[in-house]
Amino acid sequence: MNISLNITKTITELLSGFMPESAANIGAMVTIALIYLAIFAVAGLYLVLLERKVAAWFQLRLGPNRVGPWGLLQTMADALKLVSKELTGTVKADKFLYNLAPYFVIVSSLMALSVFPFTQEFQAFDINIGLFFLIAISSIGVIGILLGGWASNNKFALIGAMRSGVQTISYELSVGLSLLTMVLLTGTLQLSEIIEVQKNGWLIVQGHIPAVIAFMIYMIAGTAETNRAPFDMVEAESELGAGFHTEYSGMKFAYFFLAEFINMFIIAAIATTVFFGGWLSPFGITESIPWLGVFWFIGKTFMLVFLMMWFRWTFPRLRVDQLLTLEWKYLLPLNLLNIVLMALIVWLGFTIQL
Amino acid sequence: MSYFGDIYKGIKTLLTGMSVTGKYFLTSRKGAITQQYPDNRETLKMFERFRGEVVMPHDENNEHRCTGCQKCELACPNGSIEIIWDRQIDPESGKKKKMIDKHIYHLGMCTMCGLCIEACPTDAIVWAQNFENSVYDRSYLTKVLNQPGSKLKAGVEE
Ligand code: SF4
Ligand code: SF4
Fold it and tell me: What transmembrane ranges does the database entry give (chain A) (predicted)?
């Protein structure tokens, strides 16, 4: 079976058949953007459904099971409802920023998706600073949250947004440093090459102890980055209503909501790429069928997404001071130590190569 | 060393928590507590302590245990109970005695706090386990708990 998944090239070639080259390039980009948008809007909706089902199972409930078989169409129905809802807003809101904020959040999270190698070929945009790009993009989203909280002229929203700022700025460090630990091992920031390196064993095996520590730190900080429980002080329902999106309704609310789930997918996908070999199959069992890589990539990512849901439905929410203590007194120093440890291991050649 | 001790303890407690919820997750298929209500309307039984509405049980001779002492009326924080009573001649003993005419209960106002039931000295009123209380006209929510023609069970007052 030979399915060509090198989509950018295929589409460019297809289009350049009847277009000048520059137009074909732009056309290809637009097509790919639309494909990604369609895929991930639906994927985001199904992540919401998955979250609700998993939450239900953790709480000994059944979860949505009325719309469609096993409730599979529930989130579609919800999306339809949200689309048809009126967009309300506060009178004294800063209209421009208020309307801009949801797009900021959703666009920044969709942008990050473009660099993931779903298989060897299926990658929209392979830049040599891929990991750096991901870290940068994933922290832009917080600007959207700050804008939303500021512009909606609501005290709860503002407090939520400020907490989000505190949280993301602190935990950004841990995400960056834990990924940097792994970069010491790979020697490259380009995602496709990071996966190439892992053909001799996934990085979590290659780097053993410091890699496991980095993975733990990354998962904690990543959960905090997505503003999910137990780090969901941004929207802490019991204290802040709904936090920064209190004043949003309809589709604008849906953008925030979808962005949260796509961000969760992104955090899990980064971890898959950097720690668990991306689209590589375990022990190379399906090496001869390259397009199965999509399956492995998605499978690993969903395992990690499940882990994050498990966190969410197990741990109680932290206080702000506990959150900052965790980051600045524990994660950050450990992370710095871990980098030194990893550097020593790489220097002395103690990595495990399969 | 308590710094690393704290980290160890933190990780251990987190894992303990995750194992608890993990066990629930794995057994959830068998033990889901969700009642799929309109489907099992026929068979659904509410549990013992469920508070549906206040009722006054009557036995087969159409006798209840309410003496008309009005303690429930006084106990109710929002005036959901009204007791209309009268002094009548008791046909057996020939003495004048307080008796209820109507024990009126406004379900629409009741907050299901249960204070009336706790206050009743003769356990004349109890919780019912029914849960379908919606009606099309709110006047249906005003109920007379004692059945017409019912009387006080003998021996309750002693
Ligand atoms: S349950 Fe509470 S509110 Fe209802 S009738 Fe009794 S005392 Fe009143
Ligand atoms: S129901 Fe109980 S408390 Fe109320 S009047 Fe009758 S005996 Fe007294």
Answer: 26-49, 96-117, 129-150, 171-189, 201-221, 253-277, 289-310, 330-350
Contact A314 B34 (CB under 8 A): no
Residue A29, domain member (yes or no): no
Q: What is the pLDDT of residues A222-263, one digit of tens each?
A: 888 888 878 877 777 777 777 778 888 888 888 888 888 888
How many angstroms separate the CA atoms of A353 and A349, rounded? 10
Would you say A235 and A227 are in contact if contact means Cβ atoms under 8 Å apart?
A: yes
Does residue B151 or residue A10 have the better pLDDT?
B151
Round the average pLDDT of chain B to a whole number and report it.
86
User: Which residue bears the tokens 């079976």?
Assistant: A1
- Identify all chain A residues contacting B8, using CB atoms and an 8 Å cutoff: none
Contact between residue B65 and residue B124 where contact means Cβ atoms under 8 Å apart: yes
What are the counts of helices (DSSP H) followed by strands (DSSP E) for chain A? 14, 0
Judged by CB atoms closer than 8 Å, whether chains meet at B25 and A57 is answered as yes
- Token look-up 């992370």 returns A335
Question: Regarding predicted confidence, which is higher, B91 or A326?
Answer: A326
Res B105 pLDDT > 90:
yes
pLDDT of residue B136: 93
CA Rg value for chain A: 21
Please report, for the domain that includes residue B120, its CATH number.
3.30.70.3270
Residue A96 forms part of a structural domain? yes
Secondary element (H or E) of residue A311: helix A293-312
Measured CA to CA, the distance from residue A193 to residue A173 in angstroms comes to 24
**Average of pLDDT values for A319-339?**
87
CA of residue A284 to ligand 1 center, whole Å = 69
Tell whether B115 is covered by a domain.
yes
Three-state SS at B88 = strand
Single-letter amino acid code for the residue at B57: P
Residues in chain B: 158
Closest Cα to atom 8 of ligand 1: B76
Residues B15 and B83 in one domain: no
Any idea how long chain A is?
354
**Domain total in chain B:** 2
Residue-number span of the structural domain to which B22 is assigned: 2-34
Residue A310 has its nearest CB partner, among B7, B21, B28, at B21
B123, B76: one domain: yes
A 10 A CB-CB count for A159 gives: 19
Looking at A188-292, list the stretches that DSSP marks H as alpha helix, in order from N- to C-terminal side: 191-197, 203-206, 208-225, 237-240, 250-275
Contact at CB, B22 and A310, closer than 8 angstroms: yes
The residue range of the domain holding A102 is: 89-348
Note the ipTM here: 0.73
Is B157 part of a structural domain of the chain? no
Does residue B10 have a pLDDT over 90? no
